Amino acid sequence: MIKRLQLNNFRNYEDIRLIIPDLSSIIVLYGNNGEGKTNILESISLFSEFGSLRRAKYDEIVNGNLKYGHWGVTMDTPICTFSMTYDRPTGRKVHKIDGNARRNLSEFAKNYYVLWLTYEMDRLFLQSPSARRDFIDLLCSVSSVEHMKNVRNYEKLTKDRLKILKNYVNGNRKEDIEKWLSVLENQIVELGIKIANKRMKTVVELEMNQIKDGFPIFKNEMTGGIEHSILPLGNSSEKTELYERELRDRRDRDGFSGMTTFGPNRSDWKVLYVDKMIDASLCSAGEQKMLLNGVFLSFVASRLKEDSRHLLLLLDDIVAYLDGSHRALLFSNIRKFVDRHAKKLSVWLSGTSKELFSDLGRDVTFFLVHNGIVKEG
Questions:
Q1: Of the candidates 164, 167, 137, 115, which has an alpha carbon nearest to the alpha carbon of residue 307?
Q2: pLDDT value of residue 1
Q3: Is the pTM of this model over 0.85?
Q4: Which residues are within 8 A (CB) of 122 and not within 5 positions of it... i.e. 6 or more apart?
Q5: Three-state secondary-structure class, residue 62
Q6: What CATH number does residue 278 fall under?
């Protein structure tokens, strides 16, 4: 759990400190829209392997009203104090544990992990495939610290390949360029298969572990060329050979289009609402919201069973536009999670009013967020 959270020059905050009571596993931030509730949740999400819930650049986070070009987040836990600072003029980011500098977040990930669901995700089934891939990658990053490294390295390699292909399609097909492309494509294939396999494994687990009491029943899968033509092959050498051939055959197409047209970057996550046997994108807004809530909470439930680390669960304004019965269903599941796993779960929620969270019951700490000030009560 978090005992104390401090933000300095972060978004709309100059200097705030939240002290969390020992018995509280549920923390609610409430206040009007635009007061900074999401900013507090974002500061916690920065400690995730995935990155922040807004996917914001570090330069964008610093408080624009202050002359200082840096921001910082400090998190006190029962184990130690984690901190992260960023200096905009130099672009330098520093992680520290108990005041000692560390290269990355690996020490945090040994004992904690972060998951979130936000109001903006309500339209996930209507958004681009990249948004749905990001959602699945967030889930993948929890059980595999290597997954996001693979995704980022894959993105870098494909960008490097596309730069070379600009010359390639203009007639520069010298032997050294052919060799360099082959080297890059071999590395892309290795990472692409790892990424696609992890996503496929995750969506299978989602379906197997879904919560069926009150939430819509769903089927789901990753779809795309790599899932349909590469992963089903029998052995790794066949997968590698066919994938590399696809990339070679698509060099001209990719070079002219400026896009990598085959691989996990083209995959999509498809969800079927079983009761109506229709794609989630065709469901009503309310059905989509409950489908996503059900998928997400199913994943949370499975991780709480299998993962011994402490989960920081961030739920940003997800009760907006939920009717009373669906809000009660959501809160009853959160309550069950806390009652069963109190020692390894902290839930942070946000909303516009305190009354929205009355069904959460006991041991809830409320913070009023207003005009850059946070007060308990």
A1: 115
A2: 85
A3: yes
A4: 285, 288, 289, 292, 318, 321
A5: strand
A6: 3.40.50.300
